[in-house]
Amino acid sequence: MEMTPEGLDALKEAINIGVGYAASSLNQLFDTHISLDVPAIELTTPELLVRQGFMAGKDISCVTLSFGGRLDGSASLIFPPQDAAKLVTLLMDDNTDTDDLDALRSGTLEEIGNIVINGIMGTISNLLGSKLDFELPTYLEGSPKELYTAGILHQNQAVLLVKARFRLEKLQTVGTIILLFELSSLDALLTAFVNMYDE
Q: CB atoms < 10 A from the CB of 199, how many?
């Protein structure tokens, strides 16, 4: 199913609202001003995503959250490991033991992913008037091929790609977050937003 301009605008507005909730929660977590915005949304596939060069030949950090209910699928928060490391430094102090870095890294990124994905999907589910059940987030790091093998990305499935700018005031840096929504019921989501606009 193709997304109409009206349906796309409605979906983008829902995601913007969810991103706003996520940014507010992250501001409190990191005690620094963090802003998120959503400049672009498109429908694609994981295969095209890799072929277009977004993740080709690069290791990536990935937090995935599966959900079920009216919509079944998963959402992934993906960014380069170097940007992930910058995020983790916000919660580290000079006394952090090297042995604790891996646990701190994965735990911090899982929490960030949980906040961002729940903010967006929670807003969408509220607008649709249906409850989604979320599993615990999981964190993986590696090449796109390794993530394919791990089942994070699946070929020949529709993906809703949301490119969000991620600004951190303390670090004076700008990163890009990619949200991949693998939805087995993607048509139902698009139809719902089209109908919502028509009403």
A: 5
The tokens for 66 are 């599966």
Residue 163 domain boundaries: 5-198
Residue (of 184, 168, 198) closest to 87 by Cα position: 168
**Kind of pairing, strands 132-134 and 60-69?**
antiparallel
Tell me the C-alpha distance between 189 and 183, whole Å: 9
Which pTM does this prediction carry?
Answer: 0.82
Contacts with 1 (C-beta within 8 Å, 6 or more apart), sequence order: 186, 187, 190, 191
Query: Alpha helices, DSSP H only, in the chain?
Result: 5-30, 46-51, 81-89, 101-128, 144-150, 186-198
In degrees rounded to 5, what are phi and psi of residue 57?
70, 15
Q: How far is CA 153 from the centre of its chain?
A: 13
As given in the structure block, the two tokens for residue 55 are: 């993740």
Q: State how many domains the chain has.
A: 1
Dihedral (CA of 142, 144, 148, 149) sign: negative
161 phi, psi to nearest 5 deg? -95, 120
Could you report the per-residue pLDDT of 112-169, keeping only the tens digit for each? Answer: 889 988 998 888 888 888 888 988 888 888 876 676 666 566 655 677 888 777 777 7
CATH of the domain at 115: 3.40.1550.10
Q: What's the distance, CA 184 to chain centroid?
A: 17
Report how far residue 157's alpha carbon sits from residue 118's, in angstroms, rounded to the nearest whole number: 22
